[in-house]
Amino acid sequence: MSYAAAETVAASSTWAATNLFYVLLVPALLLWYTYWRMSRRHMYELAEKIAGPPGYPLIGNALEFTGGSDEIFKNIMKRSFEFKNETAVRIWIGPRLLVFLYDPRDVELILSSHVHIDKAEEYRFFKPWLGDGLLISTGQKWRSHRKLIAPTFHLNVLKSFIDLFNANSRAVVNKLKKESGEFDCHDYMKTAMGVNKNTQDSGFEYAMAVMKMCDILHLRHTKIWLRPDLLFNFTQYAKVQNKLLSIIHGLTTKVIKRKKEEFKSGKKPSILETEVTTKDTKTTSVEGLSFGQSAGLKDDLDVDEDVGQKKRLAFLDLLLESAQGGIVISDTEIKEQVDTIMFEGHDTTAAGSSFFLSLMGIHQDIQAKVVEELDQIFGDSDRPATFQDTLEMKYLERCLMETLRMFPPVPIIARHLNQDITLPSSGKKVPAGTTVVIGTYKLHRSESIYPNPDKFDPDNFLPERSANRHYYAFVPFSAGPRSCVGRKYAMLKLKIILSTILRNFRVISDLKEEDFKLQADIILKRAEGFKVRLEPRKRLVKA
Ligand code: HEM
């Protein structure tokens, strides 16, 4: 056979082999798809019984998640209100079934459970950043770390942060004095929330990096092609993410290193509670800081039983001390927990306080009542706030809670179901494998729970109005065993910073709530920025 003929034979046999491959591939794929659909039949059958918008084959409702994050938020809200009378709404993002829950009874079923504690698949995008920190870990690891960390947010530890909160608040007021005209107060709140004097320089860079990381994570949540790591790692976003993570982890490492050096040099932990408790179980629940735990469930931030004769330490001090033994927590785990707390404690409080100031700027009458209360507490004095003062800020607290109702910084909470559940509200079943999404934003705007839900009305939180409301109708900090571990810290800090600002300035907003463009890239924000103006109060308190 000539060389040319041999080449022709080789080419045609390659062609035949390629053809055979495709001929076999198509039925193989069809077979696999049929098997896959059959194995998920139970899921499809149950999902069919739950109301939801129609979707396309294979991609489901993924096209609804195109556009900017403010558009996505608007679309989702519009969609969810189309199903106004439904307590649960399903959507498909490709093969993933998501069921949104809006009824407090269904929310309770998930959040009060010790079984449904697994975070949804979507939280895995946080993994390169937060590792196995409290927010995303599960099972025994989460249980043991939660048990270790919760006591570091005990009220007695938090009280010792008050000086730091006051110092931060005064620094913010001093910076705000330079503002004239309209500006974005979120910029100030971001840096005020996460830093102390040792981390102030890196604080802004860190805050920016966190914000950009959230943008990337949000993109991965909403754009299905960015979900698989294999594809994502080839994109420009992956490179940007690596840069941002080096900034974020750089600051965490710095904070831990400094603490370790203090530890080695024998410096006493910064916060040390010398007061010891009795052996009996005792709870230190304080009204106004203590929501997030339903009746009948033990609040792990309050209970003193595990303390016994031990001293109470602040978060990082305790982790480092526990690491000394080497058994309880490793160095990597400490870093993951610090990253988690720094993220969770930072953006959420910054958004909450910025919404609060925006709302005060709109509702001058309500702001005047807050200031009247502050005048009663502080009189003409420019003294810093004490813990007792924060307990007396009852009206400010109601305004804060109403802010968190209307604009919950964490607008959804998602869990992965490992078993079928039956919704108490409707008797409908949600199949195992579903991502259940607690739609906090919509739940908080439910007409059947809050009459006139779009109106900013702090009286919604008058004790007599709250008393008859379902406990799970207000869950800005989640609730139950996986509730926010920093909720009391957040309330205390917010009360101190917001009261200090209002003692010094009148806040004015030219926009109304209905003009807010909301976007939810992980944390709920105003897309146009939190624009306000300030006027020094006549009796200007020295900051
Ligand atoms: C206004 C401020 C805050 C809001 C609205 C908020 C809200 C929440 C919500 C809704 C969750 C549950 C998330 C989920 O299950 O997916 C959560 C969890 C968590 N939060 Fe907060 N948070 C705030 C402030 C803080 C602060 C100041 C810290 C720490 C200093 C903190 C630390 C955490 C941690 C560690 C978790 C995970 C708890 C666990 O799974 O065991 N948060 N937060």
How is this fold's topology laid out?
Elements: H1 3-39, H2 41-48, H3 69-82, E1 88-93, E2 96-101, H4 104-111, H5 127-130, H6 139-149, H7 155-159, H8 162-176, E3 183-184, H9 185-194, H10 200-222, H11 229-232, H12 236-264, E4 272-273, E5 312-313, H13 315-325, H14 331-362, H15 364-378, H16 387-392, H17 394-406, E6 413-416, E7 421-422, E8 429-430, E9 435-438, H18 440-443, H19 463-467, H20 487-504, E10 505-508, E11 518-521, E12 523-526, E13 531-536
Parallel strand pairs: 2-9
Antiparallel strand pairs: 1-2, 3-13, 4-5, 6-9, 7-8, 10-13, 11-12
Helix pairs in contact: 8-9, 8-20, 9-14, 10-12, 12-14, 14-17, 15-17
Structural summary, described in words:
- This protein has about 550 residues and is of the alpha+beta class.
- It has a single domain, classed as Cytochrome P450 (Cytochrome p450), CATH 1.10.630.
- It has 20 helices and 13 strands.
- It has helices at about 5-40, 40-50, 70-80, 105-110, 125-130, 140-150, 155-160, 160-175, 185-195, 200-220, 230, 235-265, 315-325, 330-360, 365-380, 385-390, 395-405, 440-445, 465, 485-505; strands spanning about 90-95, 95-100, 185, 270-275, 310-315, 415, 420, 430, 435-440, 505-510, 520, 525, 530-535.
- The strands form five sheets. The protein has a four-stranded mixed sheet with strand order 1-2-9-6. A three-stranded antiparallel sheet has the order 3-13-10.
- Strand 7 (about 420) and strand 8 form a beta hairpin.
- It is globular and about 105 Å long.
- Residues about 270-285, about 290-295 and about 305-310 have low confidence and may be disordered.
- The structure holds protoporphyrin IX containing FE (HEM).
- Protoporphyrin IX containing FE binds near residues 348, 478 and 485.
- The site of protoporphyrin IX containing FE has 22 residues, from helix 14 and helix 20.
- This is Cytochrome P450 4G4.
- Belongs to the cytochrome P450 family.
